[in-house]
C-alpha cells in the first residue's frame, strides 16, 4: 500500500467519517475533524490524523462520550461555564463560543471555564481564533499527570500547555505562543517509543527519578519540566487555572489521553479573551508592532508561531502526505 497525498478538505472529511463511524454524533465529530485539518495544515502531525485512531478507540471504549450534549451557563456577566459532559472539548468550546465572543466585546474581557472535558487539540488554535477576530486570547489546559516536581520522581501535573495569540489587525495573529511545561511534548516520547528511537538527554526520568533515554521507561516515569523549577511553576499555574478553577479533574486524578483504561479524563480548559479597545486602544497595536519588528529585524530570529505559518503556506499548496500504515489504521478504526 502506497502513501497517499490528501488535500486539507480530504483530511477533514477522512477524520469526520472515522469519528462518525466510531460512534460520535456530527455535532461532536465535526469540530474535531476541523481541528485535525488545522493541525495537519500547520505541520503539527502529532495532533492531526495520527490522533484519529486514538479518538476512535476512546469513543468505542467510553473514554469520550460521542453523544454528549455540552451545557453552557453564565453565572456572572463576564464568566462563562461549560460542562463538556465527557464529550470532546472541541464541541463544548464551540457550543459556548458565540456567547464567549459577545461577552468579551460587551465587558471588555471574559473568561470561559470548561470542565469534564478532554484533549482539545492544538491549544494555540483556540487562542488564534480569538486573535483572528481582533481579540487577545490566553488559553490554558491541564492534562493527565506526567511531570514530577523538581527534586521529586512522582508525576504531579501534566504537560499543561498555555497559549497566547495577539491580533495583527488584518484578520490574523501577529504572534502565537503555544508551549507546554515539559522540556519536550509527550507526543514525541510516544512517537519514539513506537519507532524504537532513543530520547535526547534532559527529556525524561524513569520511575525511580533517574534520567533516561529509553522512551518506554519515560512513559512509566515522568517528563522533565522545561527550565527546571520555573517550568514546573508554569505547569502548576496552568493546573490551578484549568483544573482547580474550572472544576475539572486534577492531572493526578485524570485517566491518560492514550490507551483505553480509566474512563473519561475529565480535564479542564480555561480561556481568557480580551478586547484591546477596552484598555490601550490604538496604542496596543502600535506597541505589539514595534515589539514584533524588534524581534524580526534580527537575523536568525523569528516570532513565535512563524514556523507554523510557513508550514501552513506550504501545506495549503502541496497537501498532506499520509503514511500508508496510518491510513490503514484510520480506515479500520
UniProtKB/TrEMBL annotation:
Q: Which InterPro entries match?
A: Mal/L-sulf/L-lact_DH-like_ah, Mal/L-sulf/L-lact_DH-like_NADP, Mal/L-sulfo/L-lacto_DH-like_sf, Malate/L-lactate_DH-like
Keyword line: Oxidoreductase
Pfam families in the record:
Ldh_2
Coding gene? comC_1
Family assignment from sequence similarity: Belongs to the LDH2/MDH2 oxidoreductase family.
State the EC number(s): 1.1.1.338
Native organism: Roseinatronobacter ekhonensis
The superkingdom of the source organism is: Bacteria
**What would you give as a GO molecular function for this chain, any one?**
oxidoreductase activity
Q: Does the keyword Acetylation apply?
A: no
Q: What is this protein called?
A: (2R)-3-sulfolactate dehydrogenase (NADP(+))
Amino acid at each position: 500500500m502506497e502513501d497517499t497525498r490528501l488535500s486539507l478538505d480530504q483530511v477533514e472529511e477522512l477524520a469526520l467519517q472515522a469519528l462518525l463511524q466510531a460512534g460520535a454524533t456530527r455535532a461532536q465529530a465535526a469540530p474535531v475533524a476541523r481541528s485535525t485539518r488545522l493541525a495537519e495544515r500547520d505541520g503539527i502531525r502529532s495532533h492531526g490524523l495520527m490522533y484519529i485512531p486514538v479518538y476512535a478507540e476512546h469513543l468505542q471504549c467510553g473514554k469520550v462520550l460521542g453523544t454528549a450534549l455540552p451545557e453552557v451557563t453564565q453565572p456572572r456577566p463576564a464568566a462563562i461555564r461549560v460542562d463538556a459532559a465527557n464529550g470532546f472539548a472541541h464541541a463544548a468550546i464551540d457550543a459556548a463560543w458565540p456567547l464567549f465572543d459577545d461577552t468579551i466585546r460587551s465587558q471588555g474581557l471574559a473568561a470561559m471555564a470548561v470542565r469534564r472535558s478532554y484533549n482539545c487539540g492544538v491549544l494555540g488554535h483556540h487562542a488564534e481564533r480569538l486573535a483572528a477576530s481582533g481579540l487577545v486570547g490566553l488559553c490554558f489546559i491541564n492534562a493527565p499527570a506526567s511531570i514530577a516536581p523538581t527534586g521529586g520522581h512522582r508525576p504531579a501535573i501534566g504537560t499543561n500547555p498555555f497559549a497566547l495569540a495577539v491580533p495583527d489587525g488584518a484578520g490574523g495573529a501577529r504572534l502565537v505562543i503555544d508551549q507546554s511545561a515539559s522540556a519536550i511534548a509527550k507526543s514525541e516520547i510516544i512517537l519514539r517509543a513506537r519507532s524504537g528511537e532513543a530520547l535526547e538527554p534532559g527529556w525524561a526520568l524513569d520511575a525511580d527519578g533517574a534520567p533516561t533515554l529509553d522512551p518506554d521507561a519515560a512513559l512509566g516515569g515522568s517528563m522533565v519540566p522545561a527550565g527546571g523549577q520555573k517550568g514546573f511553576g508554569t505547569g502548576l499555574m496552568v493546573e490551578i487555572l484549568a483544573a482547580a478553577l474550572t472544576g475539572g479533574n486534577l492531572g493526578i486524578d485524570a485517566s491518560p489521553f492514550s490507551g483505553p483504561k480509566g474512563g473519561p479524563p475529565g480535564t479542564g480548559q480555561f480561556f481568557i479573551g480580551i478586547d484591546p479597545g477596552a484598555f490601550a486602544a490604538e496604542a496596543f497595536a502600535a506597541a505589539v508592532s514595534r515589539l514584533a519588528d524588534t524581534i524580526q529585524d534580527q537575523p536568525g530570529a523569528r516570532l513565535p508561531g512563524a514556523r507554523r505559518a510557513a508550514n501552513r503556506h506550504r501545506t495549503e499548496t502541496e497537501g498532506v502526505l499520509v503514511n500508508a500504515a496510518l491510513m490503514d489504521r484510520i480506515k479500520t478504526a
